[in-house]
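Figure 6 in text form: structure in, sequence out.
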């Protein structure tokens, strides 16, 4: 596009950029990820008349200048950013950082003046849309290499630690594949690592991964999808109980069972290693403290259709009435997608149970969350949902395969008589948050606030569920999130103030699980719009295992080197996923 006569074509490009950015802002939380996931048309820019002489492909250069102008960087700042913020150059499509001279040369010689103006205008569109969606940030969604303590840890030591940890975590995964399959399963885990690192979707073209991989050929996106579905494919044969009752388990439960077996084998391998006498100190001691919580992986498609979409011949919407309004329900909307707390968003939900330990907070179990949706309740549908008590019982059962647990910490989202009964029956101590909705709770809080000296209170009582009774202590204490409000906790023992204070101090360590979820989502989950639960659950479980591998690798490294590596992990999460993607598995000769 080199003349002013192409104004219509220019407007079409800007319109496409704007539409794509709008869509991507619902998927990604950073402007860098928006730019790296734009689809750049082959005909948008001319480039060199002799493209064969170019050292770098045109598309990465287009992304580079969109990034430069959208981030409002000068050329020297851009060059430093490529050198300093890991993965920016990889995200843009380069196999190495490029210098300021190369940037300047490409700007002058590769893009005509009209194209340079188009790049600036397109970047302004991107910046404006991202600003409207509040995804403009000054940092980068990646690792800063200066934070990696390579001055005290050799590359060989890092590779050995990651290789050992990955072998422990993933050795039991397999797929029902032919003996003459073109790619080994490791090649797909490499590609999975690349997808996590670049925040790309599974159908992303393989060319960017192929540039960086040492393999002669790499799996294509469609092949990757098929293989991952095979890994998570449940047995088609009925179990004995299903045969007798004539009722088959929901598919999502069978997918859960299929994926969790190799997950638990990996967890057991990692825990055995953590307690091996080879190491100077064990990674943890039993009985352990554990935290349970729920996280969500957003899903952006609406469960409802517009009337226009419903009129299409391939659509068969279901009419439902919600809050007195008739809506058209998409029958293909995934069963395990439901509304998120305090939000209009929706997503797949997963519950986890994690060891609370300073350096080895290993995830012991994962459980799908199947909530009842509002329209299912309104329609009186009999769906097999998972109550919070069911989730807790399943997670404690999973964890019991590996360790003895003495204390369990849960937030108020799990508060119910049944949940407390589930834990108490296992003779485990719980500290469980409780909503301050009851009148008696409000009365206690009012009395505390009016007192001139005391700012907390403990009250002894008991709970009865299904004929079983156990002692309880209610603790009323100022909220750490909002000092003007009070938090209520329940403990299944009669304890005094000193014991209650100590237990709440231990409870505060459960916040590490929030950091766990942030790390998994930021580094160990790819972008996905898939409705297939095999893909969704497998990817979350793989992400969780990668988190365990990351923690295990750092434990091995701390033991291997005779220096103080500080309190932060010497191998950062972003670095681990790069090693999995490009360095870990030996390609065949």
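Output sequence:
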């Amino acid at each position: 596009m080199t003349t002013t006569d192409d104004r219509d074509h220019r407007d079409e490009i800007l319109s496409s950029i704007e539409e794509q950015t709008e869509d991507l802002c619902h998927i990604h939380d950073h402007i860098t990820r928006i730019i790296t996931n734009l689809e750049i048309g082959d005909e948008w820019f001319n480039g060199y008349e002799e493209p064969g002489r170019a050292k770098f492909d045109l598309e990465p250069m287009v992304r580079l200048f969109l990034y430069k102008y959208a981030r409002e960087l000068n050329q020297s700042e851009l060059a430093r950013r490529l050198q300093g913020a890991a993965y920016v150059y990889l995200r843009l499509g380069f196999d190495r950082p490029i210098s300021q001279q190369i940037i300047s040369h490409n700007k002058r010689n590769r893009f005509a003046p009209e194209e340079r103006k188009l790049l600036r205008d397109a970047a302004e569109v991107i910046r404006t849309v991202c600003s409207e969606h509040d995804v403009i940030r000054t940092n980068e969604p990646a690792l800063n290499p200066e934070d990696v303590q390579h001055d005290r840890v050799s590359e060989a030591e890092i590779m050995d630690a990651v290789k050992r940890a990955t072998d422990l975590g993933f050795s039991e995964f397999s797929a029902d594949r032919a003996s003459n399959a073109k790619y080994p399963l490791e090649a797909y885990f490499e590609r999975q690592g690349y997808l996590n690192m670049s925040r790309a979707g599974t159908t992303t073209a393989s060319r960017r991964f192929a540039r960086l991989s040492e393999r002669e050929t790499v799996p294509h996106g469609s092949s990757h999808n098929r293989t991952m579905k095979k890994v998570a494919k449940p047995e088609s044969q009925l179990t004995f109980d299903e045969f007798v009752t004539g009722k088959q388990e929901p598919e999502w439960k069978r997918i859960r069972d299929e994926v969790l077996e190799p997950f638990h084998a990996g967890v057991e391998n990692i825990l055995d290693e953590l307690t091996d006498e080879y190491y100077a100190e064990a990674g943890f001691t039993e009985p352990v403290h554990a935290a349970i919580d729920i996280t969500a992986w957003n899903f952006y498609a609406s469960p409802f259709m517009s009337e226009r979409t419903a009129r299409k011949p391939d659509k068969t919407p279901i009419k439902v009435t919600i809050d007195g309004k008739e809506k058209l329900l998409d029958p293909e909307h995934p069963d395990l997608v439901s509304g998120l707390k305090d939000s209009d968003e929706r997503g797949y939900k997963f519950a986890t149970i994690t060891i609370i330990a300073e350096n080895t907070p290993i995830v012991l179990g994962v459980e799908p969350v199947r909530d009842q949706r509002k329209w299912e309740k309104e329609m009186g549908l009999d769906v097999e949902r998972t109550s919070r008590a069911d989730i807790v019982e399943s997670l404690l059962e999973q964890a019991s395969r590996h360790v003895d647990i003495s204390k369990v910490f849960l937030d108020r989202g799990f508060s119910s008589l049944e949940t407390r009964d589930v834990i108490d029956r296992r003779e485990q101590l719980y500290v469980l948050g409780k909503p301050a909705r009851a009148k008696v709770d409000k009365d206690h809080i009012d009395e505390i606030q009016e007192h001139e000296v005391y700012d907390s209170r403990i009250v002894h009582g008991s709970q009865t569920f299904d004929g079983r009774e156990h002692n309880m202590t209610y603790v009323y204490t100022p909220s750490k999130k909002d000092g003007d409000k009070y938090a209520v906790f329940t403990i299944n023992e009669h304890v005094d103030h000193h014991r209650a204070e100590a237990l709440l101090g231990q409870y505060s360590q459960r916040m590490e699980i929030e950091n766990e979820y942030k790390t998994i989502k930021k580094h160990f989950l790819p972008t996905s719009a898939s409705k297939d639960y095999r893909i969704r659950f497998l990817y979350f479980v793989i992400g969780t295992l990668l988190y365990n591998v990351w923690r295990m690798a750092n434990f091995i490294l701390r033991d291997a080197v005779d220096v103080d590596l500080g309190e932060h992990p010497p191998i950062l999460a972003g670095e681990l996923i790069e090693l999995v993607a490009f360095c870990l598995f030996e390609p065949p000769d």
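Caption detail: The first strand starts at residue 288 and ends at 298.
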